[in-house]
Structures are given as structure tokens and as C-alpha cells.
Amino acid sequence: MELNDQFLVSAGARPHPDGWLVAQAGRWTLASSPTLPVTPLLDEHGATAGWLLGWVVAPDGEFLHQRPTLPLGEVVAPDGDVEERLYRFAGRWACVLLSGRPRVHLDPAGSLAAVYSEQEEAVASTTTVLHHGDRALGERFGRRTLPPGQFFPAGLTNEPKVHRVLPNHLLDLETWQTRRHWPPAPVERVDDRDTEAVADRQRAIADGVRLTIESIAAHHRVLLPLTAGRDSRLLAAAAHRVLDRCTFVVFAYDDQRASDLAFARGAARRFDLDLRVLPPEPVDERAARTYLDRVGYDANEGKAGDFMLAAGRLPLDHAWLTGFAAEVGRGEYWKASDLPRNPSADELVQLVRLRPEPAYRDALETWRAGTPHQDVEELLDLAYLEMRVGCWASPQLYGAAPFTLSTIPVNRRDVFSAMLQLPTALRAAQRTAPAATALNWPELARLPYGRAPGLRGAPDALARGAQRVRDGAALGTRLRRALRR
């Protein structure tokens, strides 16, 4: 079984796949796939004080994972704080700090996903790695329960005694408990009448995504999604200056997403883009088992047909960049909902679009109690980042075809901060991504959303217009209720 880009950190040695690399620091052992970069962090005496795992992009574009070692001071201040140093970095990474109080930090989207077991004193990429060699792993396929689009929220996994490290949380390796480290307080939004402040946040989004993509393109040819939606357009615009290094990809789904294919083809003709059209492949039991083993059974096998099988026909020496997490900037969980002011645990389960499971309700209630927020919109923004991205999207990167690098260009602390600081009215109107897109590629931003360019997209335009009317009515109801409160 190939478990590319995965890892295991444990107190003492544990079974791991053959051919993995092993490093030790004190009582801690790191076993990692040869495809995962590992950069030792050295203290002032030259001793190993931790490891930086994964692909790390510095603010100046340097690939820090190409260095043989890094001084500990690059990621942590003398007082132990990491916010000003570690969280400058883009990419897809996890940081294991062993000096002071041992702990594990994840990148802002938790995209190098991690699960842990207090009982076994180990943290790993997936439950598959955590319990490598356990015969019971072969029985999981018959017990799988997650339908498409569903996930285990708020730190839960498919194993009761194994939990997930959420984005914005650290794992304490002494207590084996997680705790939130960001945001420390509700995020202060800018006033929608302050046009300069709004423009500053939109520029931060545009620049952050552009810098990440350009930095990666300096080292690898890149594969980018191209659809009729806002998120892929944000990425495409950010790649405007490196189009000669880009291949765009659209999956030819046989459903309501046909407008994506029409848009991609129209945009590729108009701007002379290198476009690959990939029909998803059927997923048989063997493919489903392979995919689920790679993601640790914390997802459904539905993405195996596109992310693993179809994408596997692309050049694997390229970097695979996804549009995950851009929805944080457009209020995906609340943009068209008539929201309760203080949702109950059961309502919160519904708002994050999960099945009504008692374990989900209890976990979400505990999560909410430790989540700083000024209103339900911010609560749901953090839920989207920490649940939909951290618990659904990020684990599935382990199941994608084994590209030389797979990452989320929006995955930056400065970008997420700017998104959360934008006024809710602007975000509800879906203006975040188009504004940031226009800053990097105005001509691309002027093409319509949700439809093909020109007359080919007229039927889709009518349907989208009707949906906007319905969404506007729902938003108006919400605003009237808010004013009455």
C-alpha cells in the first residue's frame, strides 16, 4: 500500500511501512514516507529540537523544505510564541516542536492532516498509519458509514479513541489534548463604508494567493482547476504572470456541473490556456479500498474517481493546486441561510450540513464552547475552515494522485485573516473572490460566473438569476430579523 506524503510521530518506536525514513530526538521517533520533506529544527547547540514536515513557502518565496536544516528561531520566538514566525509560511506543512513544551502545530488549513491517540502516545497523518500492521484495518471497508460529502466533525474520526487535530488548534504532546491558539478573540471586521480598508483586505487576498502560486511555479509546473465558479477563478487569476508554467484541469462530470466544462473550454479558447478535460473514472471496490486506506477512512470514496484515478493520468511531476478553502471568504455556511442568532447544537449540525448524529451534536457543542466569535456568521466561518476544510478537504489530499506536491494556495494565515475581516454584506453578495480576481487578471474577472462565456451560457444565466432572486429574498429576511432583534 502506497501512503505517500504521510508520517508518524510517537513516544518510542511503532510499526510503520517498509522503506520509510526514521529519525529520533530524545524519546520521540519520526517515521515518514520518502515523498514527504522533513526539515530538522536545530536549537542553539545544534541538537534536534523538532521537525518541520511538508512543503514550506517563506514570505520571500523560498522553499524552506529544500534546506537541510533550519534554526529553531525561524519558527518559534524565545518565549515560545509561533504566530509571528511559523504562521508567516504558506504551503502544506506540520511542525513538531520538542523543546520547551512538546507540541504539534498544523498549517492554517490543517492541510497536512493529523490524527492522534493519547492511549498510544502517537500522532500520525491517518488512522491507517497510526495502526499500521493491525489486522483489524482490513475490516474497515465493510464498516464504512460516510456518504458523499460527509465527514467526522470537531475532532472526531472513524475510531472512537483516535481524534483529529483541527486547524487553528495545537496538540500538546504531554497532555495529549488539543487547544485553540487562533484566533485568540473574535476577529474585528472592517466597516463596509471604509472603502480603503476593504480594498486593503482584498489586496491581501489577491497578493497572498498570487505569491504562493508564483513561488511554486518557480520550482514546478503546476496543475490548476478551471471551472465556472469563483474559487478556481481566484487561483487562475493569481497565476496570470506564470501561465506558461500552468496546465488547467476541468473534470467532465455528467451532471449539473456541465457549465464548468463549457466555461473552461470557452475561457481556454479566449485566453489560449493549456486545458486538460478529464472524465472521472468509475470506482470499483479495489479503487475504493485504496482511496479509503490512504485517507484513513475519514471520508467517502467519491473523490477517488476524479482526484485519484482521473488525475493520475496527469503528469505526476507537476504540483497539484486545489481551490479548497476559498469558500471561507464567501460565507459558504451562511450566505443564503435564515440563521438563528444563537444556534442550538442540533441546529449547528444542520448548518454545517451533517447528518443528525448524537456524537456530532456533542462534539460540535464542545467545539463551540471554545470558539471565540462575535456572531453566528463568524462562528460558521470558523466552522467552515476547521470542519469542512480541516476534516473533509485536507484529509483527502492524501488520497489524490501522487503529485510531486499537492497544496491549497489559499492556505495562508494572512489570507484567512483578510477574508474574515471583510464585511459580511460584501461576502454575502459573493464579491470577495471576484474583487481579488480582478486585481490579478481584470479580463478574466469580467467573464460571467456559473455559466459559459457568451451565448452558450444564456440558459445557465437564467437559472442563476432565478437562484439569486431566491438568495436575495432569504438575505432580506435575515436582515429584517436582525434589525428587529
UniProtKB/TrEMBL annotation:
<dbReference type="InterPro" id="IPR014729">
    <property type="entry name" value="Rossmann-like_a/b/a_fold"/>
</dbReference>
<protein>
    <recommendedName>
        <fullName>Asparagine synthase (Glutamine-hydrolysing)</fullName>
    </recommendedName>
</protein>
